């Protein structure tokens, strides 16, 4: 008996008992649906979190100064001295203050960041028009500003901001550049921002030094050595008080996040896997009933020459077809459910062909494993006893 | 019948014992029987005489406790289950009392079944199935399911199934048992026609009037055989 013949027989038998087949498959359908939907949503969440963290900049280290006694900042000079550490590509000290920025009658409250020319590179900002800060602006305390795309449209509407003057805490600053839109992250909008030279910022806000330094490492292999270098330098500056500064490694945050979402995905998958197991038991149950019901059929088949193997494959194919069909239905419903949830809860969803294939193969496998016992029972029936069965 | 022909069935001193409630029941007691090609043999006996056991052993559905059984030149009394299934498939066409057709399958598919298990290709199967159904005159009804056929027609489908693989022996177990007298007669006439066409037939029945239509009658009583007519066993 070949495979095609067996499949034909199996589908005939499944279709002859539609309601029962559907109820039997339900366990597998629910299991596969759960696996597909939960893992797709989990992977979607991982993907969006990863994208958010990466949008901060690649190979980014953030140095935060918490302070010790009266020294709770780094001077610009000290910050730039960190540049000596091997492997640093860009370094941008930044001092952020909240200020109101005015243009004619409009006014917005934004973060004003005093920084240097490398800030755009470190934080991966692009210039939409005009230019970014340059070192000479810092050297000469230039009163110029680069504004974010959101702030630009808030203040200037559709007119060109370049060359216009804005008032930051009452001082006139000339707008020389507008940033391209970067979108929002969990830290708020990246486009509601105004950047001015660090030296000018120190004057206008009457605050010496910076509390944040952004460092971009040249290659990800150098991250650890740069972190080490920063720690050594800062430890020296704060005389061994390691509590007065903190170096954040973005890849650390990323791997922690990935760990969390990974664990979540595995846990969800595990729960779904258990429901698949329950579905398998359901299949075994029905197959056992089916074998008893069809004892006479088995007897007839054996009397006219079916071998053990023929009966075994017949029932195995039947349970495989049952669970495989359940798997296919479950994949369809799971993909649909994941899409529905993602559109309703505005969550990102990521389907992976691997997971879908694994779910299908797994459900067929469940058919084989849980069909083995009933099929074997059927194959071992003695023809005379089976024929006598009423 | 010429004595030089090799017998189809040669049973020698065959015994079958059951253990039942600590008591040994001798269902078959050193039975010997020879069936030649083209024979039409009836085995008659009341219920409990061991005739079902004999039919099961002859049909290779069961194995004997002791003794020898040559079927079409092969010793089959000690074969394993799978080998027996193959023998049943190739050498024996069963005609049962209750027809034993599969209700979910059409007449065509029922007749096709033994050929599937024999591993015959789809194309050759079709030809053999149609031919077998033509022999029993049910060619037009081959896509009907058993419930859509009358008792006589169902039994003819069963006969077609037995004939499809062209086995050397047709084994009929009370073929008229589930039919009314008129249809029963028709089926018996048909079986006689088959014998006239050269098929070897072993018929098992409790009905003496039916057994009279056979060329040879063997009586079984308490697991022992005795020949009524024709040559001695």
Explain what the structure shows.
Chain A has 390 residues and is α+β, with helices and mostly antiparallel strands. Chain A has two domains: 3-52 and 255-388, no CATH class; 72-237, no CATH class. Chain A is built from 13 helices and twelve strands. Chain A has helices at 3-15, 18-54, 76-81, 119-122, 135-139, 149-156, 198-204, 223-237, 250-293, 295-303, 308-345, 353-379, 383-388; strands spanning 60-65, 88-103, 106-115, 127-130, 144-147, 165-168, 171-179, 184-185, 188-189, 193-197, 212-217, 245-249. In chain A, the strands form two sheets. Chain A has a six-stranded mixed barrel. In chain A, helix 1 crosses helix 11 and helix 2 (18-54) packs antiparallel against helix 9 (250-293). Chain A is elongated. Chain A starts with a helix and ends with a helix. Chain B has one domain: Rossmann fold (3-Layer(aba) Sandwich), CATH 3.40.50. The radius of gyration of chain B is 18 Å and the shape is globular. In chain B, strand 1 (9-20) and strand 2 form a beta hairpin. In chain B, the strands form two sheets. A six-stranded mixed β-sheet of chain B has the order 6-7-8-3-9-10, with helices on both faces. Chain B has a four-stranded antiparallel β-sheet with strand order 2-1-4-5, with helices on one face. With 233 residues, chain B is an alpha/beta fold. The chains are: A alpha+beta (390), B alpha/beta (233). Chains A and B meet through helix 1, helix 10, helix 11 and helix 13 of A and helix 2 and helix 3 of B.
N-to-C SSE string of chain A, H for helix and E for strand = HHEHEEHEHEHEEEEEHEHEHHHHH
Give the helix level of chain B as a range of percent.
25-40%
* Oligomeric state of the chains in view: heterodimer
Write out the strand line-up for the largest beta sheet of chain A, numbering strands in chain order: 2-3-10-5-7-6
How does the overall form of chain B come out from the CA principal axes? globular
Continuous helix count of chain B: 7
Neighbour order of strands in the largest sheet of chain B:
6-7-8-3-9-10
Rounded to the nearest angstrom, the radius of gyration of chain A is 34 Å
- How many individual β-strands of chain A? 12
Alpha plus pi helix count of chain A: 13
The total number of structural domains of chain A is 2
- Whole-number mean pLDDT of chain B: 87
- Largest two-chain interface: A-B, 22 and 26 residues
The coarse silhouette of chain A is: elongated
* CATH top-level class of chain B: Alpha Beta
Q: Beta-strand level of the residues of chain B, as a percent range?
A: 25-35%
Task: Tell me the series of helices and strands of chain B, N- to C-terminal.
Answer: EEEHEEHEHHHEHEHEE
Q: What is the percentage of strand-forming residues of chain A? A: 15-25%
Count of the domains of chain B: 1
